[in-house]
Amino acid sequence: MSHEITPSRVAEERTPKLWTGDYYNEGISHEGVFDKLKEECGVFGVFGHPDAASLSYYGLHALQHRGEESAGICTTDGGDFNYHRGMGLVKEVFDKDRLGSLIGSNSIGHVRYSTSGESKLANAQPLVFKYRDGDLAIATNGNIVNANQIRKELEAKGSIFQTSSDTEVLAHLIARSSKDFVAATKEALQQLVGGFAFLIMTNNKLIAASDPNGLRPLTMGRLGDAYLFASETCAFEVVGAELVRDIQPGEMLIFDENGVVEDRYSEMQRRSLCAMEYIYFSRPDTDLNGANLHAARKRMGKKMAQESFVDADIVTGVPDSSISAAIGYAEETGIPYELGLIKNKYTGRTFIQPSQELREQGVKMKLSAVRKVVEGKRVVMIDDSIVRGTTSRRIVNLLREAGATQVHVRITSPPFKNPCFYGIDTPNRQELIASCKTIEEIRQEINADSLAFLTKDGLIEAIDSYSTQELNGGLCLACFDNDYPTEVQFHGTEKFGCGCE
């Protein structure tokens, strides 16, 4: 039996609200004021700790940047499932009473930003099911490229889907198998193509699995006798756990009352950890494959300075992900680093904006240029990527309005030309400015005095996470070079996927 915790009406009665809709991020436009890329989600799991729900709460809070649309936790004490999911931020979805009702020493949790599947409660994870052997819960980070194909085949055989999330495909594959749970899970995972990190829980088992290319990160930690799992190591720091190791591509770890079995459902394919984890998504206090993100981003800034120096008075970074790279650029060039741009951390994404004039000023509600810092100065503005170009143009103009005499833009990644299929929300190829414009045309579009991107080789060298013997340094760079590590679908001349129709 599974128990859904009844939501309190307190949150519904709060007034006034600073966002439109019934919850933060409802009906969010994927363009918004800023056109930054969005990660799909983050996962956190616990096996063997009496405060599993509380650990998951704090772990998910540390992963909030990976998904701000919905959150959920499912726990078990070896018997019944207890779970709660809701739309909004972790701190809005859970309170003390709800956490107290989530009894159990095993748990899996999830924060979500939808790229595949609609923005609604039914798609919030962990997804929870009843099947022949009891209860089943699944949380995932990433995207299954062949989910639609598998879904159609299963529906033709009589399967009835309850959500539009591609994660549900895995549950149906497991449930339809005549094999035991572990063998059925292994067989199901072998049918999936894409980039994914799964946490799968039954009443007495927890499985952690990574895709054969290792596209999406998944790490294992230890807290006393308990095992923890997270999309980023920063979540372990928050709860006082220590990092044990990364889950390897194609690996499948099975935890139950007898301990842990280290197994594989697939041999490792071409290693292809998403480069955007290093460039933008992961927190700077996260370590990926032994490389600290802050240090890696500083090296990107230093490499950028070596490749594309420009004489200027100050260097500033676009908060928050580009601060580390800006520091690196400043250290390498000797140009002073200054806080020329300040981010307002307390704004929602979808403000009530009663007029077009206010909507056009929306960028200033999230980002401000410090006039006394940039006025009369030649500014080097460091950012991590350019997607449509609208964000860069707005920020360049902010600096000019604050009195900057020159604005030189340096991007610590190659031009972003191709859509992602593995769990990043990207526009269609036609909307990616670098896919249809030259660097000079982009410079003119964003109103910069000069523009340069980090080269692909410079990026690989700066990240320095794997042996140089591996293709692309063990990274997925498909968004830059169009070399996808798995099969992807075509529609005419346009690649599509990841829910970015």
UniProtKB/TrEMBL annotation:
The gene is purF. Keywords: 4Fe-4S, Glutamine amidotransferase, Glycosyltransferase, Iron, Iron-sulfur, Magnesium, Metal-binding, Purine biosynthesis, Transferase. PROSITE patterns: GATASE_TYPE_2. GO terms for biological process: 'de novo' IMP biosynthetic process; purine nucleobase biosynthetic process. Residues 41-258 form the Glutamine amidotransferase type-2 domain. Catalyzes the formation of phosphoribosylamine from phosphoribosylpyrophosphate (PRPP) and glutamine. Its cofactor is [4Fe-4S] cluster; Mg(2+). SUPFAM superfamilies: N-terminal nucleophile aminohydrolases (Ntn hydrolases) (SSF56235), PRTase-like (SSF53271). Coiled coil: none annotated. It is an enzyme of class 2 (transferase). The lineage of its organism: Bacteria, Bacillati, Bacillota, Bacilli, Bacillales. Pathway: Purine metabolism; IMP biosynthesis via de novo pathway; N(1)-(5-phospho-D-ribosyl)glycinamide from 5-phospho-alpha-D-ribose 1-diphosphate: step 1/2. [4Fe-4S] cluster binds at residues 274, 420, 476, 479. This is Amidophosphoribosyltransferase. GO terms for molecular function: 4 iron, 4 sulfur cluster binding; amidophosphoribosyltransferase activity; magnesium ion binding. Transmembrane segments: none annotated.
